[in-house]
Amino acid sequence: FVDMDALITDRIGMPISDYFSLKGEAAFRQIESQLLEDLLSSNEYQVVATGGGVVTSAKNRELLRKNRKQNILLTASFDVLYD
Q1: Contact at 8 Å (CB) between 43 and 17?
Q2: How many CB atoms lie within 10 A of CB 55?
Q3: Among the listed residues 48, 35, 46, the one whose alpha carbon sits nearest the alpha carbon of residue 3
Q4: CA 16, CA 64: separation in Å to the nearest integer?
Q5: Residue ranges per structural domain of the chain
Q6: At a CB cut-off of 8 Å and minimum separation 6, what does 50 contact?
Q7: What residues are paired with 2 via a beta bridge?
Q8: Do 1 and 47 contact (CB within 8 A), yes or no?
C-alpha cells in the first residue's frame, strides 16, 4: 500500500498544508504528478492512494487512463465520510 500524501510529506520534509502556504499549489501539483508517474511506471504490484486533487491535472488523468493496471474509484456519501 502506498499513500501518495505520506510519500510527498516525507519527500518535502513538512506537512502538505505548510508546503502549500510556502510554495503554492502549482509547486505541490508538480511534485504530485512526478510521484504519480514514478509509481505508475513501477513494475511492482501496489495499491496507490492518491490525494483527491490528483485528477485535477489533465496529465495525471491521462497517466491513469493509460495505466495498464486497474484503477478503482471509491466514492461515499458525506454522511459515511463524516462517520
Answers
A1: no
A2: 12
A3: 48
A4: 23
A5: 2-82
A6: 4, 36
A7: 48
A8: yes
> Which pLDDT tens digits describe the chain residue by residue (83 residues)?
999 999 999 999 999 999 999 999 999 999 999 999 999 988 888 889 998 899 999 999 999 888 866 777 778 888 887 87
Q: Is 2 helix (H, G, I), strand (E, B) or coil?
A: strand
Domain 2-82: CATH architecture, name and number where available: 3-Layer(aba) Sandwich (3.40)
DSSP secondary structure letters along 33-65:
HHHHHHHHT--S---EE--GGGGGSHHHHHHHH
Q: Which residue has the cell 465520510?
A: 81
**3-class DSSP state of 30:** helix
Residue 24 has which C-alpha cell?
A: 503554492
